[in-house]
Specification:
about 75% helix; mainly alpha; single chain
């Protein structure tokens, strides 16, 4: 096995960049439309963004306390081994690989490709097979031109990140500066335009019905996709200088920045487009709310501007997600709980084999589903583990009462308790409101059970071969 080690080369500035880069992706442009279709009220849409931001902030503060004690490469995978056990830690890492992080890469790359198609109009590929499906759920050849563009992006960014973590983080920094400039431009010109009417933002629904608790939770699935990604900084804990201090600080600064930005930009959209218009955008299936909002005051040039901005944003978020997500599989493989070759670092001290595994599965997921299907599956899965990490705050306070805590979660025990109860409610609501996505997500997660025992059995055989005289030599000879 390689003797190479991950190097601690990222300071607080790049930690914040990776946190924000993993969060700010397609949700800031697309998710206001499905939320409006679910709630029928612009005021409630904004409330759901605020609630999702508060829960995300509370969750990130709880995560920051745990990270402050246990920070290491692998993020929650490393934490769960000490909070729970190796089996639960493995199931988390397997869930990252099968759905949470790889589906996030796929969904982001898909939106990048959609925006590219809006600009250059990619030629149709195998249109005669577009209706081919599996179980009337997966349509691998539908929009194949867009899907192939997404796959090419994943391959390109996987190659860039194989060149080392500083190369990947440098790309994210440059893109993030452009993205912030673009979004602030939309906010400034959008709110100042004659088309903006803040009076559009009102609590009454357009269908004169009350907003149900289930509708709020379902709409928040969309909002949480916008906030998803802040926990990924923990995956590269072994490459951060003074990780136990910089991870909590980076998470808090990054999430607060995103909450403020999202409230401003969604207020802008809701002041420019009515609930009816947003519902029509959602029902069309191929329109993006942000594009139509900017088109309303800048015309076709505005649509081009926002399409380019969406491409840049999803490019940056796809890159940041690829950069961080391959580290847990590397950590698992080092302990014999993943495919052995994934434990190897390349000559640039990057987990190159892990990147290849991750990229290959992400490319297959691109072919499997639509953007909203993928994101609902992700949020269902990830909130199971957000709840588990937050519960870890209580467990570690009992198990390790004297441990040095660079950061203690504000509002303990109320804040972590709120997060846990919310996670339970959201998971159960998703089972009833999005049963197909919940079922697919659960099945993909549970495929990890046989693999855990396979990897565990293989490790036992390896240990025996090292202990029995003569077995190691004969094994080496056979290879």
């Amino acid at each position: 096995m390689s003797s190479r080690q991950l190097s601690r080369s990222l300071g607080l500035r790049l930690v914040i960049v990776v946190v924000i880069g993993n969060i700010i992706g397609s949700g800031v442009y697309k998710k206001v439309a499905p939320m409006a279709a679910e709630l029928h009220s612009s005021g409630w849409v904004l409330i759901c963004w605020i609630l999702a931001g508060i829960i995300s902030l509370f969750g990130s503060l709880c995560n920051a306390e745990v990270a402050g004690i246990l920070a290491d490469t692998g993020g929650e995978y490393a934490y769960y081994k000490k909070i729970y056990n190796r089996f639960f830690a493995f199931m988390f890492g397997w869930s990252l690989f099968t759905i949470i992080q790889t589906a996030a890469i796929s969904a982001l790359a898909y939106v990048f490709a959609q925006s590219l198609n809006n600009i250059v109009h990619l030629p149709a590929i195998l249109p005669a097979l577009a209706s081919f499906n599996l179980f009337e759920t997966f349509y691998p050849f539908a929009d194949l031109n867009v899907k192939l563009a997404a796959i090419l992006l994943i391959i390109l960014l996987t190659w860039i990140n194989a060149r080392g973590i500083k190369a990947g983080a440098g790309v994210s920094t440059a893109i993030l500066i452009l993205v912030f400039g673009g979004i602030l431009t939309i906010i400034s010109f959008g709110l100042a335009s004659e088309h903006s009417q803040l009076s559009r933002i009102a609590m009454p629904t357009d269908n004169n019905t009350a907003v149900s608790a289930s509708a709020v939770f379902t709409a928040m699935l969309a909002a949480f996709w916008g906030y998803q990604g802040w926990a990924a900084i923990g995956y590269i804990g072994g490459e951060i200088k003074n990780a136990k201090r910089n991870i909590p600080r980076g998470i808090t600064i990054g999430v607060l920045t995103i909450i403020a930005l999202y409230l401003l930009v969604n207020t802008t959209y809701l002041s420019l487009l009515s609930v009816d218009q947003l519902q029509a955008i959602y029902n069309s299936g191929n329109q993006i709310a942000a594009v139509e909002a900017v088109r309303s005051f800048w015309g076709s040039n505005g649509a081009l501007f926002i399409s380019i901005l969406i491409m840049l944003t999803t490019l940056g978020c796809t890159n940041a997600t690829i950069l961080a997500s391959c580290r847990p599989y590397y950590a698992m493989a080092k302990e014999g709980l993943f495919f052995r070759s994934v434990a190897e670092l390349n000559r640039r001290n990057a987990p190159g084999v892990s990147l290849v595994y991750q990229g290959t599965w992400a490319c297959l997921l691109v072919l499997s589903g639509t953007f909203d299907q993928l994101t609902d599956m992700i949020i269902f899965a990830v909130f199971i583990y957000y709840g588990a990490t937050t519960l870890g705050v209580f467990i570690l306070r009992r198990k390790m009462p004297d441990a040095v805590r660079p950061y203690k979660v504000w509002g303990y025990p109320v804040v972590p308790a709120i997060v846990i109860l919310f996670c339970i409610a959201l998971v159960f609501n998703t089972v009833f409101s999005r049963p197909r996505e919940a079922a697919i997500g659960l099945v993909l997660m549970l495929t990890g059970v046989p693999f855990y025992y396979l990897f565990k059995s293989r490790n036992k055989q390896t240990d025996i071969s090292l202990q029995v005289p003569g077995m190691q030599d004969s094994s080496a000879h056979n290879h």
